[in-house]
Structure formats: structure tokens, C-alpha cells
Design goal:
alpha+beta, eight-stranded mixed β-sheet, 5 helices
Length: about 200
């Protein structure tokens, strides 16, 4: 996938570039980002340099991760990071963090909406998933604001700091954004009862 830039009313989402390293380093000193996200802890300037110089470009080249720097306008400050990651045929997972001083203003939900539309229309996604530890209420609030529907708890559903942990999972489908799916979707009937086997 060629590196892509997305825009919203307030934001510009573009791939990270080397000039972003200082802001990434500063943002990732936040204990909340280190607590909930799979970033190194402690987080050094070398980690930020590797991220912007190597990890992000390799993800775009290899179609393994599409990572966006979310900025308040073309020349504005970094307010968040957002990634879209392939997780199987037609399934992608989203992840994000927000810079501490820019939280509570709806920036991440706005960016997530733009990234979701891009994933459905350009990547051919049939389903976007959000996962987070059950106690991460802030992340859940962002996902729900962007339209994700909570589906339940997955046991050992994420890996964090070398351990498998339970997580809450939510999903967004093209139809949730009034977009046509790339593949037909046959949902379960709401009144479907338990399976019956054997003979009377």
C-alpha cells in the first residue's frame, strides 16, 4: 500500500516521518500510554527513532501495519497515533493512543472514523476489530463513539508485557457506516434457537 494521507474537519492523518520522533518520544513518556499499549517501558528516544525511521515505513511497504500520525491540521501538533493492522481475511484491528494534553476533545474518535472508512473502501476490510483490557474504559469510550459495537470478552485475547490477558472486543462493519460490503454478509437470525440433533 502506498503511504496515504487522510483528512477530517479538524485533523490530518499521515504516516509517521522522521521529524515526528521528538513528539512521539515525549508522548510515550506518559504512564497511561505505557500502561495500556504495547510500547517499550521505559521508552527511550532510540525507540521513537526506530519507530519513525524503520517500523512505520516497513509496515506500509509490507502491508503489515498502516500507522498514522494524527495532527491538528497540516502544521499542528501531534494529538494521537492510530494504526490499522491486518488480522486475517477481510479482518483488520485498530489501535491508538492519545497525547495526554489533547485528550477529551474527540480527536481520536474523529480519526478512527476516517481510518475506518478508508479501511472499508480502500483495504477491502469486511470487519474492523478493537481490543483492549476490560479496565481500559477510555479506549472503550473512544471505540463506541466511533460506532464500534461491544461483542464480549476474549480469554487470553491480547498479549501485553509478556503475558496473555483477557480483553474486551468490539467490531465495526461497513454497514454500520452505511457503506456497501466487499463480500455478502449473512448475519445470524435474532430469533435463532439452540441447535437440535437426534430424532424424537
Amino acid at each position: 500500500m502506498e503511504p496515504t494521507t487522510l483528512t477530517t474537519e479538524r485533523l490530518v492523518l499521515r504516516p509517521f516521518v522522521p521529524e515526528d520522533a521528538a513528539e512521539v518520544y515525549a508522548a510515550c513518556q506518559d504512564p497511561e500510554i505505557q500502561r495500556w499499549n504495547e510500547v517499550p517501558s521505559p521508552y527511550t528516544r532510540a525507540h521513537a527513532d526506530t519507530w519513525v525511521h524503520e517500523t512505520v515505513p516497513a509496515g506500509w511497504r509490507g502491508d503489515t501495519a498502516y500507522s498514522f500520525a494524527v495532527r491538528l491540521g497540516p502544521q499542528g501538533p501531534l494529538v494521537a497515533a492510530l494504526g490499522v493492522h491486518p488480522r486475517g481475511e477481510s479482518v483488520f484491528e485498530v489501535g491508538f493512543w492519545a497525547v495526554a494534553e489533547h485528550r477529551g476533545r474527540g480527536y481520536v474518535a474523529e480519526a478512527l472514523g476516517a481510518a475506518a472508512r478508508w479501511a472499508f473502501t480502500e483495504l477491502g476490510a469486511g470487519r474492523l476489530e478493537w481490543r483492549a483490557e476490560p479496565d481500559n474504559a477510555a479506549s472503550r469510550a473512544v471505540a463506541e463513539k466511533a460506532g464500534f459495537r461491544m461483542e464480549g470478552i476474549l480469554r487470553a485475547g491480547i498479549r501485553h508485557r509478556g503475558t496473555l490477558r483477557d480483553c474486551r472486543v468490539g467490531a465495526l462493519l461497513p454497514s454500520d457506516l452505511d457503506l456497501p460490503p466487499h463480500l455478502p454478509y449473512l448475519p445470524a437470525r435474532p430469533d435463532a434457537g439452540p441447535a437440535v440433533s437426534g430424532t424424537p
